[in-house]
Amino acid sequence: MRATHVVELPAETDANENRYANIFARAFPEYDITWEIVPAVSDYDQKKNLAIASGNAPDLIQCSKTDMVLWADQGLIQPLDALIEQYAPDYRRNVAANGADLYGRYLGRQYSLITPSNPMLNGRHQFVRKDWLDRLGLEMPRTTEELFTVLKAFTFDDPDGNGKNDTYGMSGVKNLAFMDQLTSPFDVDFDSWSRVDGQIVPDIIRPETKEALAYIKKCWEAGVIEPDAFILQFGEYWARCRQGYYGFINMYQSGVITIANPLLRKDNPQALYAIVAPPIEGPGGTRRLSVDSWDYWHWAVPVAVKHPEAGVRLFNYSFTEEADRLFWGDEGVSHEIRAGYYFRIPRQKNPQAWAYSYNFVVDLYHTRSVHFLIEMWTALARTGVVSMDYVESIGLLEEYGDHDPYRIPSLLEAEKMPVLRNYFTEMAVNIVLGRRPLDDFDGWRAYFYTNGGTEIIEDVNRLNN
Ligand SMILES: [Ca+2]
Fold first, then answer.
1. pLDDT reported for residue 2
2. d(C-alpha 270, C-alpha 133), whole Å
3. pTM of structure
4. With the CA atoms of 147, 151, 157 and 159 taken in that order, what torsion angle do they form, in degrees rounded to the nearest 10?
5. Contact of 178 with 172, CB cutoff 8 Å
C-alpha cells in the first residue's frame, strides 16, 4: 500500500528505510508499505490534487478538511464508517470518544480520519491569582456564587496589598469575548454551536445564554468587571493580563504559564496565575471548558484502492499504547527511564540523534493520544522544560473540554450569520450595561429565526449530521 505524509525528514533519510518506516513495517508484515514523503505543505497541495484527479492516489492520503469535502462531493474518496468500526478501536477510544472525529464527518458519513493535537497543546483556560486568594484568605471558588464573592474581593479588598484601588476581578475583550469564566458555567460559549436534542444550534439562541447574560449583568453592576471590558482589543487585554491587573483571566495556557507568570514573579515572587480547577460549576451543575478546534490534518481513503482497510489499520496503529512507547524514540538517545518514568534527554547532549527522534515525535507522529500528551508534558515538566501546570491543564481539557460539534462551514451561514451575530452582540452588551431589559433576549430569538436563522440551522445540520 502507499501512504502520503507531509514532513521534513532529517537530511539523507530514506523515506522507506528509517526508524519510523521500520516500525510500521514490523507492525504490518502483511502489507508492503511505501511512504511518499513531501517536505513542504506548499508542494503538497499541488501534488495531492494531481494524484487524486489522475486516479493515481495512494491508499491513505493526507488532506485538509476542504479537500475532504470537495473530494467527497466528487465521489473520489470513500466513507469510512464501517472500516473504522471494524479496524480502528484505538482511534475510536482516543479520538471518537472525545467527539473529535466529528471533524471528519460530512453529510452523515465519516469521510476522513483526523489527527487531533493542537488544542490540547495550547488550550484556553481560566486562571485565578492564587497569591491573591491566599492573601485574602479565600478558597478557590467552585460555584458561580463563590466566584461572585471572590470577584468582589479582588476588586475592592486590595488583593495585591499595595494600598491602592488598582485591581479588577476580571475583564474581557471586545464583543463579550474572553469571558468564558462567566459563560461556561451556563454551558454556553457565544462563538460556539452545541448539539441539543440531536440538532446543532448556535449557543447565542439557547435559553442558557439568557441566564449567562443575567449573571454577566450582575457582575457588571457590582463593578467587578473592568469598565473597558467590552471595547478592549485582544492585544490590550493580554498586555493588562501580563501586568497583573485582573484576578481572573481567560487565556491560552502557554501564554500564562511561560510568559505572564514569569513576568509577574520578577516583581513579586509569590505572584501566580493558577488554573481554576475544577472549572466553576453553574446552577445547572455544568462544568465546562470551551475547546478550540481539534482540526489538524485529515486522512482519506480514495475509492479505487485495493485494500481500503489497510490505511485505516495503519492510522489506528498510531493510537495504540505500543505506538506511544515506540514514538518516544530510542532509550538512551531521546529519553531515559528512571523509576518507571520517562525523562527527556536534553537536546544538547546528543543534538543529531535527538533531532531525529524529535522529528518522530513532533513532526511525523501527529496522531498522539491524550494520555501520550499528558505523559509527554509530565516528562518535560520533570526535566524543568515546562511547569506541572501544563500537565494539569491538559488533563482538565480532557475531562471538561467541550468540543464545538459544528465542523463543516455552511455557505449560507457564512453569508448570513455575521449580520445576526452583530445584532446579538449589540443587544447583549446593551443588556449587560442596563440599557435594555433582559427580556429583550426573547425578542432576539424570534428575530433570529425569522431573519434567516431557520435556514442557517437547517443548512448546518444537513452538512454536519
Ligand atoms: Ca491594590
1. 76
2. 11
3. 0.72
4. 90
5. yes
C-alpha cell at 392: 494539569
Confidence of residue 64 (pLDDT cuts 50, 70, 90): confident
Query: From CA 55, how far away is CA 163, in angstroms rounded?
Result: 73
Selection from 183, 173, 178 nearest residue 209 by Cα:
183
CATH architecture, domain 124-291: 3-Layer(aba) Sandwich (3.40)
Domains 1-116+295-321 and 124-291 share a fold: yes
Copy the grid coordinates of residue 144.
Answer: 458561580
Phi, psi of 254 (to 5 degrees): -65, -40
- Neighbouring-strand partners of residue 338: 341
Distance between Cα 371 and ligand 1 center (Å): 41
pLDDT at 296: 61
> Average pLDDT, stretch 370-387?
62
CA 129–ligand 1 middle distance (angstroms): 13
Terminal-residue alpha carbon distance, the chain:
31
Distance 184 CA to ligand 1 centre (A): 28
Distance CA 160, CA 244 (A): 9
Domain boundaries, the chain: 1-116+295-321, 124-291
Tell how far the Cα of 332 is from the centroid of ligand 1, in angstroms: 51
Cβ neighbors of 406 (< 8 A, separation 6 or more) are: 192, 193, 200, 460, 464
CA of 210 to the centre of ligand 1 (A): 33
Task: Report how far ligand 1's centroid is from the alpha carbon of 172 (Å).
Answer: 20
**Of 94, 189, 167, the residue nearest 402 (C-alpha):** 189
Domain 1-116+295-321 maps to which CATH number in 3.30.930.10, 3.40.50.12780, 1.10.390.10, 3.40.190.10?
3.40.190.10
Largest distance between two CA atoms of the chain: 75
Q: How far is the CA of 154 from the centre of ligand 1 (A)?
A: 9
Task: State the Cα angle at 24 between 22 and 25, rounded to 5°.
Answer: 60
Residue position matching grid coordinates 501520550: 372
Q: Pairing mode, if any, of strands 61-63 and 297-300? A: antiparallel
Return all residues near 345 (Cβ < 8 A) that are at least 6 apart: 332, 333, 334, 335, 336, 354
**Ligand 1: centre distance to CA 156 (Å):** 8
Distant-in-sequence, close-in-space partners of 98: CB < 8 Å, separation ≥ 6: 116, 294, 370, 398, 401, 403
Give φ, ψ of 202 to 5 degrees.
-70, 140
What pLDDT sits at residue 360? 42
- Strand (E) or helix (H) holding 69: helix 65-73
> Which cell is 152 given?
468582589
